[in-house]
Amino acid sequence: MGQQNEMFAGATLEPLPLEDADLLFSSRIQLGLDGADVLRVLVEQTPWAQETIQLYGKRYLQPRLTAWYGAAEARYRYSGKTYEPLPFTPLLLQLKQTVEQASGAAYNSVLLNYYRDGADSMGLHADDEPELGPMPCIASLSLGETRDLYFRHRHRRDLATFKLALPSASLLVMRGRTQANWKHGIRKLARPCGARLNLTFRWIQPGSVRPG
Ligand SMILES: O=C(O)CCC(=O)C(=O)O
Ligand SMILES: [Fe+2]
After folding, report:
1. Nearest residue CA, atom 2 of ligand 1?
2. Which of 5, 36, 65, 77 falls 20 to 30 Å from 49 in CA-CA distance?
3. What is the DSSP secondary structure assignment for residue 90, as one 8-state letter?
4. What's the pTM value of the predicted model, to 2 decimals?
5. Predicted ipTM?
6. pLDDT above 70: residue 211
7. Which has more confidence, 163 or 12?
């Protein structure tokens, strides 16, 4: 990332003090759109799927709905399956541009996660698939209900779990050694809670996954 981009990103995003990570955050970016409208349109118009994951040889339904969009060459492999991206919609392209400008980096794909209520969640994981490269820059835009993102260090037990609330229109950029050193996830909630969408914009190295 060039110095110019760093300066531009610095205009809206603040570094977060988490050891062994490289996080930038804004609790509210300018979307140029009404966040509630974007949430409603994406919830209604996205062809949501509930994918299965394989854990210790058993298959489970993921506790959330997802959709994957991107440039045609941005294929990725996850849990033994190759996913072909849906083509970007005009709305997602507009959000991608906003997030690219705010974060000073480029993305060719976005994973949409729809947490319908407090029972939906995402287990601790790192986004460290080979097609993301060794130091991926991932920009995570949240809409709707505030949920907490938990970070746990992959090796060091002396570092406490780090909790970050992600309100509507917040933008979190995870880059550098963040994925190599930390896992992150969204816990289930016991209290009632409304819908939340999270969009993680990523750069998939073209040609890194062959179809099949
Ligand atoms: O919902 C979130 O904030 C986390 C999403 C995430 O970690 C992912 O898509 O890999
Ligand atoms: Fe993630």
Report:
1. 198
2. 36
3. H
4. 0.91
5. 0.99
6. no
7. 163
